[in-house]
Amino acid sequence: MTGEIPKIAISVTVNGVTHREEVEPRLLLADFLRENLDLTGTHVGCEHGICGACTVLMDGDSVRSCLTFAVQADGAAIETIEGLGEMDALGPVQTAFHEHHALQCGFCTPGMLMTVTDMLRKYPLASDDEIRDGLSGNICRCTGYQNIVRAVRALVTQRDAAR
């Protein structure tokens, strides 16, 4: 026995592209995305699931990629910040954050944007309190959240007008 950890084959669709890789069972989804797929937009902050910087969507639900093993994502559809838009063609959530000055240092922004994407798909977000409650798992040390709430409120208005 060589002491090597046996690898497990997984298949994951990330931002619409299917990837088949062999990974160690202990490899975290955040590390898989960043190191194996070179998708470095997903940030790792606290490594305890508290800050929300590593939030991605797995089969449409927000997950903390620093607490999720890559093998748990086998067969799943993952959405990361890279799938929301391009530098020269920002997506609607990115545009709203830009227009409402809802970011500063940017470290929390990828997780915040993914959480907002999830919230907009699932919840009415009828009040600022609901928006704040939905964002309560994402910590930002720079903005004070006012502009983030404004950006989300604008997105809710756009979403509801389109219905």
Keywords:
163 residues; alpha+beta; Ubiquitin-like (UB roll); DNA polymerase, domain 1; 2 domains; five-stranded mixed beta sheet; 5 helices; 5 strands
Describe the structure.
The chain is α+β, with helices and mostly antiparallel strands and 163 residues long. The protein folds into 2 domains: 8-83, Beta-grasp domain (Ubiquitin-like (UB roll), Roll), CATH 3.10.20; 92-162, Orthogonal Bundle (DNA polymerase, domain 1), CATH 1.10.150.120. It is 33% helix and 15% strand. The protein contains 5 helices and 5 strands, in the order ββαβββαααα. It has helices spanning 29-36, 92-99, 109-122, 128-134, 146-162, and strands spanning 8-14, 17-23, 55-58, 61-64, 77-79. The chain has a 5-stranded mixed beta sheet, with helices on one face. A hairpin with a 2-residue loop joins strand 3 (55-58) and strand 4 (61-64). The protein is elongated. The model has no long low-confidence stretch (mean pLDDT 95).
